[in-house]
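Notes to self, Pyruvate synthase subunit PorB:
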Amino acid sequence: MVKIKELLDNELVQGSYACAGCGGILAVRMALKVLGPETVIVTTPSCLLGVTTFYPQLAFKVPCVNVTFPSTAAAISGVVAGLRRRGKSGVKVVGLAGDGGTVDIGLQALSGAIERGDNFIFICYDNEAYMNTGVQRSGATPLGARTTTTPVGRAGRGENRPKKDMLAIVAAHNVPYAATASIGYPQDYLTKVQKAMEIEGPAYIQVLAPCPPGWGYSSHLTVKLARLAVQTGQWPLAEYERGRLTVKEVANPRPLKEYLAPQARFAHLLASK
Ligand SMILES: Cc1ncc(C[n+]2csc(CCOP(=O)(O)OP(=O)(O)O)c2C)c(N)n1
Ligand code: SF4
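result:
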């Protein structure tokens, strides 16, 4: 179990242009406190890339390679091979991508890299839409959510497909380690990052990362919503290890309405007809 007090107190990502209350940047900031300076980041077009790499500034204090959407995990394999060739052991290569760059556009390359058994961690910060380009739905958008491409009106009532089960897709590759996490439960999340670090081979973590403008809520609610998602059963905390899936039980689930009500993307589901 990671002890929060023992984490790095210096920041390895600092001075980004993320919105106030961005769950994605929190997910990355927290993970880097466990990963430490011996890390090479590979990122893809996303809010994360947009807010951390404003030339000539770079918010990361570790090396960071920016690649195209579909090639993230292929580039990860390349960096892993390059480090091996140069005899640099002990450096972890970590892919960071939004849900669009993971469950949709980056899926093929990720599948290949996992299948090859390369030694890397892939962290998907899941804000449940393509936020950087204006809140378009992705394969990770939950059923019923309003996005700019799943509007609410005469033509539809928000997203009409269930969220893609990415953990099951990754687990089907017989990956050594995969997990879901939430930025609302830092100790659980960071313990999972620590476990992923200790794996010699591919590891995947999908962390729920609320987005105030994309979900339509006030920025001070980010952590609360990340907790409510778990407490209402919307976001199970799961781990797939050595072929076994475990899901943390929610003792007394809270009413789903508590999670939905603060978010404009679900307003139509609660509106009286
Ligand atoms: C192949 C390709 N398609 C589309 C784009 C345009 N684009 C850049 S960032 C982005 C959204 C990324 O969404 P996601 O991966 O979910 O990350 P987020 O912005 O939500 O952090 C899109 C569609 C692109 N750069 N490359
Ligand atoms: S739009 Fe959302 S994901 Fe993008 S920087 Fe702002 S809060 Fe973060």
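- Strands lie at 39-43, 64-66, 92-98, 120-126, 177-182, 202-208, 238-241, 244-247.
- The longest helix spans residues 72-85.
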